[in-house]
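Reply to dn_fold:

You asked what the input looked like. This is it:
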Amino acid sequence: MEGGGGQRGSSKHAAGEAEEYHCHDFQWEDLRAEVEANPAFSYHLSPFAPTAGTSQPPPSSDAWRSFHRRHTSGKFFKERRYLLKEFPELNSKGSENVLEVGCGNGSTVVPILRSSPGITVYACDCSKETLEKTNEIVCNTRGVDVKDRFHPFLLDVSTETFPDWLFCKSCRSSRANGVDLLLSLNNCNMIEKLPAFLTDDQRCVGGIDFITMIFTLSAIPLDIMPAILERCVSVLKPGGLVLFRDYGLYDMTMLRFLPHQRVGFREYMRSDGTFSYYFTLDVVRELFRASGLLELDLEYCCVSSVNRKNSKKMQRVWVHGKFQKPTAV
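and this is what came back:
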């Protein structure tokens, strides 16, 4: 279900990508003043009042499945190298578990696997075709050893809960109460439909150390985001981190939407049926705090570049955040 991520149209080469996406080329407050003073953008600012009989259908995961079917070629894949600078925690040399929520074509998975040989990545998406293509891309990427380290699985995070084999109830309870994890793993309750990569005596992977949500949450309506975050927190180990990156208010792509594409306040529907929400820091802060996570880092990332085809200036706005699950007392 992963959104486009805002990387299409970049004017810089891959070698400079990390620096490009980790800088602050302009102040978000200056962009806000510019947008809100422009009458052409006034419809983005007003409260949303749906007209009777003309409301848009709710966004469907089918739209994202169709989107990824149309973009199955390798040309659409672009490795997100900047993530390792934005989230240096992913350069860990330990044996951590990462859950990529809405993995799309694997552009987030590849740099994580490449940089951290001890990390295992579990990646979910709502599209079977997307997961198959992701597995193909990841397994064929040079310099990445994926043996027993990459496990994609089918799941629509907007409607389904995570499987117990990620973090079973026995292990959750043991973690919360300080019980030895190896003992709890041996005493896991029987879980149905265990994935093939688990050993005969293993009932779950023992929880997740890092959850990456990279241009995923914006593809889902605001009113169901709290339930999704609650599910994510349920499989996160105490002390684990959620690493968040998504569209920010007044990003260039938001300002391109026409009035008829507006389906809610800061919510838009593309012509292909895919959905996009644009975040403020306050909204992100409230969502993650309400889910029980502690805010470690939260800011706008504002990047200015030039489109090489038409020489137009592009002002991109993303929200960057790190949140932690409290450790047991």
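Confidence is low (pLDDT under 50) at residues 5-19, 179-187.
Hope that clears it up.
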